[in-house]
């Protein structure tokens, strides 16, 4: 396949749709040949990757197999290296290494004292019951406020969380924020039992509190091959996601309706727009394909900030090398947006993205044998947007300036 035809198959849109999009964006951004350039780069990068993997067989099943095997090998090397890091547990060690790898500055986050105030006012009964305490003061004798606030995800109902969130976050302003470093918190073993349902639902043991600049790890080991590398990359992704939201908080904090915008950002609202005009791109801060693969918005021009966070996190990971542990992940560099529909693949995309392939390995080891590609497809749309606007920094600025509208209009 060549040019627009290959991109159309990967993005699951008509070739004429892309031709029209390219003409319209050329008028607005002054750039021509963007889609042809991306299509050519996609094929070139695939060939380079398969040559590095010594794969002469270009069938879809074979390529998926060698990508899974490569994830398995690289994960073993990473685990060997992490095991040599200082720390009491594998979680402590992983957290220290991620902090070392991530290239992140300080951020603009809610003051820690506000987390304590929210806990004092809301009196989370299930949390107190689990800890066998009657007051927050008792709980704070053995746990810090970050740990307690994180644990609300495990103990309280979604209804309780939504109600508390709506009440507590409705009056925040710029003065409620401060600049500090992103914190990565490893929860203690006492949370293991209560967090198991959360991990089972989310399929990973990592989560975050964007507004407080906190990433936390649940104390649950998942020994299925693929999960360690998958979650390690997710940690790096969260660093960049939190950094981005910090910039959003700072940009909108002077607006009179900042509290409403803050809640909208944290909820992950996606605009109910199912048809775009020429020069319009949706900002979609979720993976809609996970919810409904037929969502009409999946067939519209869009930019997904999640893809930008993944690109940056995977760049951190693939740029990090540790020769003493035979750790070299640069094969995966710049593959986040790369994919192909091979002749024998029944129109299914083969994703070359690290996270998609780590997830596919997990599924294979669990006997489900699903192949994931939703990270790659979103990343390709985001890559196209980035090329039109002139690079990653400009893309980020445009996203921040238009995030509250949920759409970019050129």
The helix/strand order is HHHHHEHHHHHEEHEEHHEHEHEEEEHHHE
* Derived structural class: mainly alpha
The number of domains is: 2
Number of strands: 12
Runs in which pLDDT lies below 50 for 5 or more consecutive residues are: none
Major β-sheet strand ordering: 3-5-4
Task: Tally the helices.
Answer: 18
Instruction: Give the CA-CA distance, first to last residue.
Output: 30 Å
Q: Major sheet: size, sense and barrel closure?
A: 3 strands, mixed
Characterization of the model:
- The strands form 5 sheets. The chain has a 3-stranded mixed β-sheet, with helices on both faces. It has a 3-stranded mixed β-sheet with strand order 7-6-12. A two-stranded antiparallel sheet has the order 1-2.
- The longest helix is centred in the middle third of the chain and has 26 residues, at 227-252.
- Helix 6 crosses helix 9 (145-155).
- The protein is built from 18 helices and 12 strands.
- It has 2 domains: 1-84 and 277-410, no CATH class; 87-222, no CATH class.
- The mean pLDDT is 94.
- The radius of gyration is 22 Å and the shape is globular.
- The chain has helices at 3-11, 15-29, 34-52, 60-83, 90-101, 112-122, 125-131, 136-139, 145-155, 158-168, 192-202, 227-252, 258-267, 288-291, 305-319, 354-365, 374-389, 392-402; strands spanning 107-110, 177-180, 183-186, 206-209, 214-217, 280-283, 302-303, 321-322, 327-328, 339-340, 350-351, 407-409.
- The chain has 410 residues and is mostly helical.
């Amino acid at each position: 396949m060549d040019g627009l035809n290959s991109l159309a198959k990967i993005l699951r849109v008509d070739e004429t749709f892309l031709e029209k999009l390219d003409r319209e964006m050329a008028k607005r951004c002054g750039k021509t040949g963007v889609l042809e350039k991306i299509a050519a780069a996609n094929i070139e990068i695939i060939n380079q990757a398969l040559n590095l993997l010594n794969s002469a067989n270009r069938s879809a099943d074979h390529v998926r197999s060698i990508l899974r095997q490569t994830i398995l090998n690289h994960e073993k090397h990473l685990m060997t290296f992490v095991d040599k890091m200082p720390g009491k547990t594998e979680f402590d060690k992983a957290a220290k290494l991620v902090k070392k790898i991530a290239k992140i500055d300080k951020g603009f986050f809610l003051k820690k004292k506000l987390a304590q105030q929210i806990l004092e006012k809301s009196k989370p009964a299930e949390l107190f019951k689990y800890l066998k305490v009657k007051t927050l003061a008792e709980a704070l004798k053995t746990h810090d406020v970050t740990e307690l606030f994180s644990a609300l995800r495990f103990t309280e109902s979604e209804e309780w969380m939504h109600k508390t969130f709506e009440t507590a976050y409705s009056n925040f302003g710029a003065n409620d924020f401060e600049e500090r470093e992103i914190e990565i918190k490893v929860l203690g073993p006492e949370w293991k039992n209560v967090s198991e349902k959360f991990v089972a639902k989310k399929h990973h043991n990592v989560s975050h509190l964007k507004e407080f600049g906190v990433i936390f790890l649940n104390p649950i080991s998942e020994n299925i091959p693929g999960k360690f590398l998958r979650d390690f990359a997710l940690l790096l992704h969260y660093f960049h996601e939190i950094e981005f939201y910090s910039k959003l908080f700072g940009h909108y904090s002077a607006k009179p309706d900042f509290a409403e915008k803050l809640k909208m950002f944290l909820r992950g609202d996606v605009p109910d727009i199912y048809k775009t005009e020429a020069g319009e791109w949706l900002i979609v801060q979720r993976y809609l394909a996970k919810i409904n693969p037929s969502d009409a918005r999946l067939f519209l021009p869009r930019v997904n900030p999640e893809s930008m966070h993944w690109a940056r996190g995977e760049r951190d990971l693939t740029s990090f090398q540790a020769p003493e542990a035979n750790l070299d992940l640069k094969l995966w560099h710049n593959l986040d947006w790369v994919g192909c529909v091979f002749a024998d693949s029944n129109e299914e995309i083969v994703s070359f993205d690290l996270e998609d392939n780590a997830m596919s390995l997990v599924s294979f080891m669990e006997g489900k044998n699903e192949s994931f590609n939703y990270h790659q497809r979103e990343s390709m749309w985001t890559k196209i947007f980035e090329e039109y606007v002139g690079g990653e920094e400009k893309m980020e600025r445009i996203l921040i300036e238009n995030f509250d509208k949920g759409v970019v209009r050129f």
